[in-house]
Fold these 2 entries.
Entry 1:
Amino acid sequence: MTEQALLLVNLGSPASTKVADVRSYLNQFLMDPYVIDLPWPIRRLLVSLILIKRPEQSAHAYASIWWPEGSPLTVLSQRLTDAVRPHWNEGPVELAMRYGEPSIERSLLKLAGQGIRQVTFAPLYPQFADSTTTTAVEEARRVIREKGLDLKLSVLQPFYDQPEYLDALVASAKPYLAQDFDHLLLSFHGLPERHLHKTDPTGSHCLKTQDCCQRAEGAVLANCYRAQCLQSGAAFAERLGLRPEQWSVSFQSRLGRAKWIEPYTEARLDELAAQGVKKLLVMCPAFVADCIETLEEIGDRGREQFLAAGGEELQLVPCLNTHEAWVQALVTLCRRAPQAL
Ligand SMILES: C=CC1=C(C)c2cc3[nH]c(cc4nc(cc5[nH]c(cc1n2)c(C)c5CCC(=O)O)C(CCC(=O)O)=C4C)c(C)c3C=C
Ligand SMILES: [Fe+2]
Ligand SMILES: [Fe+2]
């Protein structure tokens, strides 16, 4: 029988916490036209400006959460790959990163070198965005084309509304939700509003009214990151039977001066404290593995901010990481991936 390899794909991290390694990672990441979607000369200028101060700040932040084995994102993604392997009887299971190592190019060449002809390509992003899903798939297509590889891809589609993902989120969060808490904040990674306008197939739906993302359906929903985040949040809260005042959604990690999708997590932390929330739970459902954005931005800086604003406790709920329910869910989702190339 023909072997079907599984390639799990995540974002990637710097090789180390050295400023030079962080600069080179940020340069590769931010020069991606799907991430900073501006014409090359403007992007080059903007990224060069960002690279004056950001690498040092980010290196410091990475150093504060780095593990002896490496970046949490990379280590957790590798552990997930190892946990999935015994369940994927169809062929080999490998990990690739969009930025840094192991690169998509290296991993596809390795699989092709083993005689593999079919790959299930699994971007580990529940909600669709050009800056995550599209860029990963396009990079795989580039490698296949430029290296002349005889590989067919089945691509895992965004799974923001799939019961397997939502049930795994519930299973992983249950022990934390069993504790006493005043509010649950679902903090998703943010995006510049410009990205939503670009992927809106009607050119006239997104961010036009207060609730347009709540009402998105069909092709609009399939391309609207914000709408998918809101749906994941609502479906998760419904599964847990949470009342509307017990939970809310926000968007974190804004970079630069452009307007990003709202509400901003930073603003929500102050608002919730001002409303008298003392015990806050924060989950980050756009990330399947803990990383700098969850551990440092929320777990360290977010906690500090919430406590300074009058809150008493911020509990960060771990990402899905290697939870058994997630391992099973991922295998099921990957088996359903449609043939795309
Ligand atoms: C224009 C900038 C950025 C966009 C757009 C963006 C989208 C986006 N990112 C993730 C997931 C992750 N991002 C991570 C780190 C990170 N993201 C940006 C910028 C944008 N992201 C930067 C500059 C960084 C590096 C860290 C820093 O300097 O702040 C990570 C963690 C990587 C790690 O090593 O831990 C993840 C994961 C999503 C899901 C997304 C769009 C929806
Ligand atoms: Fe990011
Ligand atoms: Fe929208």
Note: The pocket of fe (ii) ion (ligand 3) is lined by residues 196, 206, 212-213, 216, 224, 226-227 (CB under 6 Å).
Entry 2:
Amino acid sequence: MSDFKNQANILYTKGQFKDAKELYIKGIEEIKIGDKELSSADKELVSVLYCNLAVTNIQLKEYTQALNDATLSIEYNNQNAKSYQRAGDALIHLQLYREAKEMYLHAIRHVKDENSLQIANNSLQNSKMKLFYEPILQGTPKFYENIEIRYLDTVKEKSLFTKRDVKKGDILFMDTPFIHRISPDSMKRLGNLICHFCMKFIAAESIVYCKGPCKSTQYCSDHCRNESEKTVHTSRSCVDPNDKQSALVQYRNMVENLSTGTTLLLAESIYSMISHKLITRQSKNCNLALGTITHLKRGPLMAQQPSYNGNNLSDLQKQYQPLLELLKKTYYPTDPKDLENKLLMDEMNKLFSVDFYDNILGMINFNSTSTVVKSPTKTNSNNSSKNDSWGIGLFPIFSCMNHSCLPNVDITNEIEDGVNSVKMVLKAKKNLLEGTEILHSYCDEKLPKKSRQSILSQYGFKCSCSKCSSGLIASTRLKQC
Ligand SMILES: C[S@@+](CC[C@H](N)C(=O)[O-])C[C@H]1O[C@@H](n2cnc3c(N)ncnc32)[C@H](O)[C@@H]1O
């Protein structure tokens, strides 16, 4: 019987999946013939054959059949880690991510070698990512129908891939931010023209104002006001900008002239969201609260600074203390019932630690994108930039794109005729086949390799794209000659 298995395995490795499938089925039938009682060795072999049949059916895109085979494989040997792995893989294709996650947890429990453990761990992460991101992708199908998100490994983590062939110049996907902040400069110049939630330029007659003490926060619609009040512009972040005693006004004044002002303001918005979620018990802990907003890569910003020597992280982070005190005065709970709640207080203390703040800034640094919103009212194209507003945003799907010095996408804000709200539009730079990793460049890819690598080191990785490694190959060859 292992002959059937060996021959089928050879056909499988040659990509002859239909023929391999036939042989796996024949092998199973031969062992099970006559409904005889199977020995434990036979059961193990049947389990392996069903498991291999499952992966063959996955190759043939017969996912329901593959799940059936993997389930039978588990029935014949419930210690077979690979059967759980295959069941999880079939479930991923069937878009049953929660069930897939359970299967991968079983695979991890039964796995016996390091390599399979790594595969199962990566698959588990993949199912978790799918659980978080699929609702976003399916929420606006016309934005995201060409792409999917996959978790690759512990180095690259998530990445975007094409789900179908896409022609050069076509829109790959569009993205709107889950959190965005306008720069202090644009705010001063254009604050009375822009919706403070969706950042759209608005006509004076359709402005809706916040009813709280800030008086100046304005929106283009009741919808934007309601959404903003539920997330960033909560009762705690609504303050009179002239109230010099307000800790939040002090924070905003302190950061507005810094080169990192917009980043620090975006961090404030994230703090507003997280503390609101904790206080209103929408989330049990900081990480969950952050996870409901974003699953973006984080790491301490200070660890990316030239002054970091490997041992002085907490010393470097201390400089955040004055800013954090102001955020704490604004967003820390005041209700006695909250103050008595130990779990909540533990989370609040974590939220207002310099380490958490540094990690939020690191997350912004790794993932944020500068944004432009063009005013529809500009009259003279030469001074159009004066009327455009800029800021930074965290875009859920855009932020999952990894780097290559040979990017295959063009990034633009415009769809057809100008932009009037914050949106990223990604177009294919060349024809892309289904299953291609979508990559953009985090730096000017025309710079020399050394400069590119120095910029990229801020992101905490070494680029190994073909442009970076081709230099290596050339120099190795030269040495060999
Ligand atoms: C904007 S995020 C991209 C999405 C990220 N992979 C994730 O899982 O959230 C930037 C981070 O992705 C990783 N990354 C991006 N491009 C990479 C590459 N070519 N090689 C290794 N890691 C990369 C780095 O950790 C970087 O800080």
Note: Residues 473-481 have pLDDT under 50 and may be disordered.
